[in-house]
Write a structure and sequence with these properties.
Elements (H helix, E strand, L loop, with lengths): L3 E4 L5 E4 L9 E4 L5 E4 L7 E2 L14 H4 L5 E6 L3 E4 L5 H5 L3 E7 L2 E7 L3 E8 L6 E11 L5 E11 L11 H5 L3 E5 L2 E4 L3 E4 L2 E4 L3 E8 L3 E7 H5 L9 H4 L11 E3 L3 E7 L2 E3 L4 E11 L2 H5 L5 H18 L4 E3 L3 H20 L16 H14 L4 H8 L12 E2 L6 E2 L15 H13 L8 E3 L5 E2 L4 E2 L19 E3 H14 L26 E2 H23 L4 E5 L14 H14 L8 E5 H22 L1 E4 L2 E4 L2 E2 L17 H8 L5 H14 L1 E2 L4 E2 L28 E2 H13 L3 H16 L1 H4 L6 E4 L5 E4 L4 H13 L2 E4 L2 E4 L13 E8 L2 E8 L9 E8 L2 E2 L2 E3 L4 E3 L6 E8 L1
Helix pairs in contact: 8-9, 8-21, 9-11, 9-21, 12-13, 13-15, 13-16, 16-18, 18-19, 18-21
Length: 879
Amino acid sequence: MKANLLIDKSGKFRVDDVDQLSYLYFPLTNYKSLKSSITPSLNGDAKIDQNSFALLPVSQEDLSNSFMNRNVYFRVNKTYTWSITGNTPYQMLNKDSVSLEADFLVHKITRENSKFKTEIESFVPFNDAYQEWHRVVLKNTSEEELVLKPVVSIPLYSRSADNLRDHRHVTALLNQATIHNNCITNKPTFSFDERGHILNQNVYGVKVTSKAEVKSYWPVLQEFFGEGNNLLDPIVVKEDLKNNYNLNQTISGYEVTAGFEYKEVNLLPNEEFEVVFILSIDKQVNNIINEEVTSARFNELKEVTIKTWHNELSNLDFEFGDNNLNGWLKWVTIQPILRRIYGCSFLPHHDYGRGGRGWRDLWQDLLALILMDPKEVRELLLNNFLGVRLDGSNATIIGDSPGEFKADRNNIARIWMDHGSWPLLTTLLYVDKSGDYQLLLEKQDYFKDKFSHYTKKVDLTLNREENIQKSKDGSSYKGTILEHLIIQNLVPFYNVGNHNNIRIEDADWNDALDMAHKNGESVAFTSLYASNLIELGNTLIKLNDIGIKEIELLSEIDVLLADIDFKDVLKKRSILNCYFDSVEGAVAGDKKTYKTNELASLLQTRGEYLREHVRRNEWLESDNGSWFNGYYDGDGVALENSETEDITLTGQVFPIYGGIATNSQIDRIIKSVDKYLYNPDVGGYKLNTDYKELKQNMGRLFGFAYGHKENGAMFSHMSVMYGNALYKRGYAHAGNKALMSIYDHCKNINKSKIYPGIPEYVDPNGRGMYHYLTGSASWLILTEVTEVFGIKADFGKLVLEPKLLKQQFNEFGEASIKTIINDKLIKVTYINKDKLDYGNYVIKSVVSSNTNLNTEETEYGVKILDICNQDIKVILHKI
């Protein structure tokens, strides 16, 4: 039997026979940031942060093999135990029919057998509380009366994830479980974690409601399942026991469960039994015990939750001819929001770190937000630039508050050489979409800690809690956002290896290329920095054209703008060290004024040099195929080789994206990538060929089994960027192949084995891995909006450059999109009555309110010169 996925255009989906798949999980959360996950068997955990887990922390393998689930048991006709999780001896021999229905973000499991049908709904309310709400409704579908004993059991872990094996038993001795009317709470005395032994402030609790009456409370986990028994068939469920626990009693020193045994219920045919329960984390016990827990309240909160999440996603809507794709893209759209909440931790696959996001994540998650709701992005962008150091590096750990940064875990600073490249892409997207070029001229502080010289030098005398760059007069030094961007992209130009490409340092985008410190170089990101320097120049030219004729920069930057021989590696390193020395401590704070156009030329000259350098020196050719070398290893040897058929996808993406590859080279790259890296059984394009070598001079990825994660998996982020780069250069059919290979794989749930959305990667068996929390979601949405639908902008002016293929239009020859441009929610409908393919049509006219809008031609479409209304129709015509 196979699972079956049905999804509608709104994103609501159903999976029949969902129990036929393992490792499935679903996020339950809100902006208050209770971070939960739930499986068809009600497994998963719930927490606020690393030190505040209400339920037992889970990783991938726990989802199928741990029985510490949220659970409601029923003793049926005094003969056997049945559970809403499906995990009882009886159900292992007598399988239920199990289906899932999901909306944003509500999870509903239906279990059916010959006697009854049970619906289990779960969600985290869109409110200001840390709560999960669950409702279980069991209906007698047989023709006979059922005698049921319902028992609720929610094991309360109530402590830090660190305590899974670090003082697991000792921390149980801190527990203080208290029985209240229809409620059990646990407030441990201390919290034992990396912060030390501190007083615990959290109360963890479960409150229940039902028309039936609670007969007994069972707060001690071991007593609940019984000596010699386990949670598959707890003794409290199968036998009628007595205990001496009373209301208002506190039981200390044991593992806790919120156990509620109800009196037996006689259920006639078509009658229902219902229980509603909430799981809460709070600072005040009264907030839990006084919470209104009713079926009516459940329905009210559920409807608000669904409506609010749909509203959050309403500013971005796709209408392709394929409604399944439209619905699937809704789940991709929510993924950047989920990563802002969960960070890169706290879902079962993401069992690393202690929460928060990394530097790269900050900027990539904002890409989708700019397309959906740019109002709050300006302040987030300003805050993010607080993480930039004057030496061009940045803090890599982001605190809980906006603008809060740390060097790295345990103050061990590292350099990912790609980090400086991403802020420009995100900032320019915001400026173009909003027209808010003034952001570039806003001033912001710089991050400052004990590290300098790209973290190669440490000032041990610097012991300051305020991580702000100072001027010599003791005031904080502030530079414009434009200055931050220039420093981030200009410093790498001088930080070169022996082949005059930018040093890889501790890794680039591929975090697992982390062992090439000595002589490693990233040609791939040299290509992106080349493009960035040119784009910075273009931005300065636009500023000049609107009257901003001069730009002020920190005077120390002038050494990076000197006229030198760019081929001279030693000279470039010398200049870089000179600059590093000048910004090591407090700076004078003096400014130098540059003519805007002249500064643009200085940056673009450097970008063009890098372009030509990569194009001339890193192109590989042989009878086996042709492509770019993307890296040099720690011994200074090229990682890619056309003779030995070694190729990386990353090494091809950025020369295409950055305008380095010629059209002729792109044609040959596509053939080579299709030959060596394309595999539809894993969703498309793999990251690299199999090097069959443990390359200790390159990175830990070569220790991974080939086809997993960064070593040769279909890694969605780079596959999507490959598609984006191809679209950007006008190769729409090849770009569409990259994107649709991922979609086609993921929508086949029996292959991908994940719910709708895009995973981080796909393993060799086709399973989607590390679902929900991936930067590929932002890049996929960005590509669909800006490249496929061609909704672009230029300093606030709408630009239309569609690259839709004929099969992407509906039966009426139309394809539509809703998105935000310049604070306006617009709908653009492309009308292609003749079903023309990309390359065979041009924009004939742009109409709003039956009026033709004034336009001017761009490379792939038109720019709209006058103010547009909310509904725009674009008529396509044969070339």
